[in-house]
Every structure is written in C-alpha cells, then in structure tokens.
Amino acid sequence: QPRTELGKKAAKALRKQGLVPCNLYGGKETINFSAPYTSLQPIVFTPAFKIAEIELNGKKIKAITKELQFDPVKDTIKHVDFQELVDEVKVKVEVPLKLNGVPAEVAMGAKLEQTMRKLKIFALPKHLPEVIVVEVGDLLVEYVDTRHNIGFKIVEALAAQHKAEFRLDKLAYVAQFRFKGKNITLIKPTTYMNLSGKAVRYWMQEANVKPENMLAILDDLAIPFGTIRLRPKGSDGGHNGLKDIDATLGNNLYPRLRFGIGSNYHKGQQVNYVLGKWSPEENKDLIDKIILATQATESFLFEGLGNAMTKFNK
C-alpha cells in the first residue's frame, strides 16, 4: 500500500506492523509504499532471480529488486528498493548460474570448483531468466531408459519408496535412509559402467559395509525379461561393470541381483540391444518387474540373502 509518512519513525512503526518500507523507481515518478514482510520473503530469500509483481492503486507493476537493507542483528529485511520494468527497455541484472551434469573428470574423482555464481546480463524484461543453466556434460544421459540402466531404475524406485533423495557426491549419486534399524546407502556411480569398481569401493569404505552386505544390481542377457536371480557370489558373466568391481575389490565374494533383460536380438546386435530402449511390450510390465526387484532387494537387506533367494529365485 502507498505510504505518505516518511522518515525513521514512520518506518519503525511500519515494521512493528509486519510491513517493510519500499521505494519504486524507474517509472514516471518515485513511489513510496509498504509491503507485508511475508510477501517479500520468496523474492529476497531465494538463489533464483525473481521478478516482483507489485499492485498499487489497482495497477499491477513488474519490478526487480535493486537494493536491500537488512537488520544487522536479526538479519531481517528492513527496506527494499525496486526498479520498475518497462516492456521495451533493457535492464542490467545478475542472474544465478547453475551447473548441470557430471563432467568426465569429476566422474573419475576430480573436484569441480564453481568460481562464478552469477552472470551479468543486459536484456528485455520478457527475456529475463530465473537461472542460467550451464551444461557441463552428463555421463549418464546415454544410458537413461535403456536396458543397461535397469540397475539405476531399481535403486531409484527403492529410494523413492523410502523417501530418500539422491545427491551428487564423490564418484556417485548417493541416497541414504534408515529402516528397521539399519543404515542403507544406495549409489549410482557417475563413472562409465565399466569403471564402477572405484565408486563401489569408496562407498563401501565410507559406509563401513562388508562385502557380504553389499548388493550389486545389474542387467543380464542370459535371463528372460523381468526374471530375478540372486547369488552370493560368482563370475562376472561378461558384464564389464562386475568385472571392474571384481578387479577393484580383489574378489567376487559379494552378493548380486541380476535382472533379466532377455536376448531378443539378431546376431551381431548384442550391444545395440543392451544399450537400446525397452520395447512397447516390455514397457507394459516393466514397472511391476522393477517393484518386484525392489522387494527382492529389501528382502536381502532385512531378511538375509538365503530367504531372499528362496522367495525370488523362480
């Protein structure tokens, strides 16, 4: 609402009422007004760039924050200066930068340092973005929704069931939760599939997990689609991910859950089949099969491998 009384005393009285003194510049005249503190919080306390919509005397005005004053002790908003946006007049603003993806070097264990957090741009109001996303490369894109990615789909479903969210951490996306007295760590390595061992070893050490309590989940050509096979140990069976885990850990004495993807491909088309998308027929049953795999994983975690094998190895 517009304010007619100015000065420190008037501003102090407004703040006691839960209002914040504001000024609007850039139009035909400077407008002094006040706004509820709660209405300013989503605009001020956010990493994104926001355009404010101010309603004064029945008129809606779009504006951006130009200067903020905070209480030095309480860190609350004391005063806001806004600049009115005019449709065909460019403005200079700072927009947050967000990095998206996993660079190959990070996937191999390097650390990415983001030295620039904001970027100054000069643009029309209609072209002002909340955030600028910079793609830095994503090693996982080529496997998304392919048969080779079924292991990730299973752990994602398991995390969702337990309301755990994945975060990007060293060598992997990691989700953690506690259930039935146990701390569970799920990982999706950000390395290439045939270099999974480094991520597995690191997170086994980080979470203090013994080999017999670690379950590797993977696709298997030799098993019919959707069929589950739990084993306490075994050969890599030609799976490069398992081969690297074996080499990194120095043994193959750890449980694994193999999810059958079938072998419905022509001679010489094995790679294309494994890295290909699921067929329409497979997609009809895929969600149910993934749920079954999460149940098998939970059985392993909370009932033991022997019971899980009895229940799910059909």
Task: Indicate the proportion of strand residues.
Answer: 25-35%
Q: Please count the helical segments.
A: 9
Runs with pLDDT <50, length 5+?
none
Main β-sheet, spatial strand arrangement: 2-1-5-4-3
Helix/strand-derived class?
alpha+beta
Number of separate strands: 14
CATH architecture of the largest domain: 3-Layer(aba) Sandwich
Order of helices and strands: HEEHEEEEHEEHEEEHEEHEHHH
Helix content: 25-40%
CATH level-4 homologous superfamily of the largest domain: Peptidyl-tRNA hydrolase
CATH topology assignment of the largest domain: Rossmann fold
Global geometry: elongated
Q: Termini distance?
A: 70 Å
Give the count of structural domains. 3
CATH class of the largest domain: Alpha Beta
Integer-rounded radius of gyration = 28 Å
Biggest β-sheet description:
5 strands, mixed
Give the SSE layout.
Layout (H helix, E strand, L loop, with lengths): L7 H9 L2 E7 L5 E6 H8 L7 E5 L2 E12 L6 E8 L6 E12 L1 H4 L10 E6 L8 E7 L11 H12 L5 E3 L2 E8 L2 E8 L6 H11 L9 E5 L7 E4 L8 H10 L6 E5 L9 H5 L5 H24 L1 H8 L2
Parallel strand pairs: 1-5, 6-8, 12-14
Antiparallel strand pairs: 1-2, 3-4, 4-5, 6-7, 9-10, 10-11, 13-14
Helix pairs in contact: 4-8, 5-6, 8-9
Describe the structure.
GO terms for molecular function: 5S rRNA binding; peptidyl-tRNA hydrolase activity; structural constituent of ribosome; tRNA binding. Pfam families: Pept_tRNA_hydro, Ribosomal_L25p. This is peptidyl-tRNA hydrolase. It is a single chain. The strands form 4 sheets. The protein has a 5-stranded mixed β-sheet. The protein has a 3-stranded mixed β-sheet with strand order 7-6-8. Strands 9-10-11 form a 3-stranded antiparallel β-sheet. The mean pLDDT is 88. It is built from 9 helices and 14 strands. It has 314 residues and is α+β, with helices and mostly antiparallel strands.
